[in-house]
Amino acid sequence: MASVSELAIEVHALRKSYGDFEAVRGIDFHVARGEVFGLLGPNGAGKTTTVEILEGYRERSDGAVSVLGEDPGERSRRWRARVGIVLQTTGLYRHIRVREALAHFAAMYPHPRAVDEVVALTGLGGKEDALVRTLSGGQLRRLDLALALVGDPELIFLDEPTTGFDPAARRNAWETIRSLRDLGKTVLLTTHYLDEAQALADRVAIIKDGRILIEGAPRDLGASAGTAPYLVAYRNGDGHLVRRETDDPTTLLHELTGDALARGERLDGLTVTRPTLEDVYLELTAGDREAEDDARVGDA
Ligand SMILES: Nc1ncnc2c1ncn2[C@@H]1O[C@H](COP(=O)(O)OP(=O)(O)OP(=O)(O)O)[C@@H](O)[C@H]1O
Ligand SMILES: [Mg+2]
Asked: How many other C-beta atoms lie within 10 A of the C-beta of residue 120?
């Protein structure tokens, strides 16, 4: 178990109710310093609620949280300077220019990064003098990311940072997030792009209905989720795709290839894969989808 100083975020038995509705129902997790941690889960799972509590923007109903060793509810000035935030929705500063917005934020921090550096890092080059309200959706999101980075924070909260990005911009944002990790920063991100979580996160937690269903390194989740650890696929003689789940691909491949060779055949397109994060996610949250589909049928 890491000592307190190695943990950037500690969450214990966290609960949040909005009136009668309990959005977060007792969750525990921690994020080590220097780690990229992903919170995943369906719409309404409680991700933003959790992140906003950790950012100090929402009060918790119960439980304990520590962020960089402090209670985020206090939001001390010194603490705020160490934390960078990309909210899920923003709409501030629409009538000023990109460079002005960044300079304005930079001035609030003790050791800001150079505005031009942040512009380059987030791919906003050429838009420095544009009015914020004239930016496209994806460009606005890049500005959100730039605003979170300009104070050179130790810990960065990114709530769906790449929603609305074109594919190239997403890859650029991934590079930015990787470079933050290389600098030793801690990142807590939420995303609905499971490839993004798989590519970036050291560990993820999948939340549903305010509870954590599973937590771990993306590549290890398959085993703990109860999905088969390996998938062997090939095309049979008729060209049909055959998929076999196994926890012992060596033996299965030996049998399959041995039989095929004995028949003088080849196994077309033979692959062995591990379940992706997406496979695990869909398996774990499947109940939801079926219930929703049933509800829709019921409505019709
Ligand atoms: N201010 C609020 N008042 C009442 N209910 C709220 C409030 N904010 C969030 N909720 C409810 O709490 C639940 C969790 O919302 P939250 O925004 O945390 O979900 P999320 O996991 O971030 O979802 P998404 O993926 O859609 O962003 C939802 O059912 C939402 O309707
Ligand atoms: Mg959200």
From this structure: 12
Q: Is there a single domain that holds both residue 176 and residue 265?
A: no
Q: Are residues 209 and 257 in the same domain?
A: no
Structure tokens at 122: 């987030």
192 alpha carbon – ligand 1 mean position (Å): 15
Contact status, residue 275 vs residue 194, Cβ threshold 8 Å: no
Within 6 A (CB) of ligand 1 lie: 18, 21, 23, 41, 43-49, 88
What's the whole-model pTM score? 0.83
Tokens 């943990």 label which residue? 7
If asked whether residues 271 and 209 sit together in one domain, one would say: no
13: domain CATH number is 3.40.50.300
Rounded CA gap, 156 and 36, in Å?
9
pLDDT digits (tens, 9 = 90+) for 61-101: 999 999 999 999 998 888 988 998 887 666 667 789 999 99
Give pLDDT tens digits for 47-56: 999 999 999 9
- Domain span at residue 159 reads 4-220
For 218, which DSSP code? G
Which among 181, 205, 220 is the end of a domain?
220
CA of 50 to the centre of ligand 1 (A): 10
The number of domains in the chain is 2
Q: How far is the CA of 141 from the centre of ligand 1 (A)?
A: 20
Pocket perturbation via mutation, ligand 1, pick of 24, 39, 49, 207 by most ligand atoms within 8 A of CB: 49
**Ligand 1 pocket: which of 15, 20, 22, 47 to mutate (most atoms <8 Å of CB)?**
47
